[in-house]
What we know:
single chain, mainly alpha, 2 domains, 2 helices
Amino acid sequence: MAEEAIKSLKKILECLLNIISVRCVINLHILKKRMTSEINYVLLFKKKFNKKIFKKSESVKMGGASGLNILQQKSWHVLRRHNIERVRKDQREEKERQQKEDDRKDLAEFESKLDHLRCVRLCNNSF
């Protein structure tokens, strides 16, 4: 009885290996098709634009592991001390300008109310 169980397990294992090997062959065939189409595309691109093409694994990364970092050298970079000071200065100037404008509006409103009250007083005294 144990021998029959072992034989049946061997048959099952052989069937599974056959199924797996057939799937692997199919997958390899599909993979080969995809790779050849990608290689043809790359060759056409290279031929058309006459440029050297790097694969992802061959990509050139300048400046070490983090890449090329030239942002601090740019005059418009927001974290440069000069730009931070300029922004703060502009904000101060804008705040002062806004304050002066608000003061001017308040003074104009006060004067208009005062003129109105004077006019009302003069009109009441004339009767």
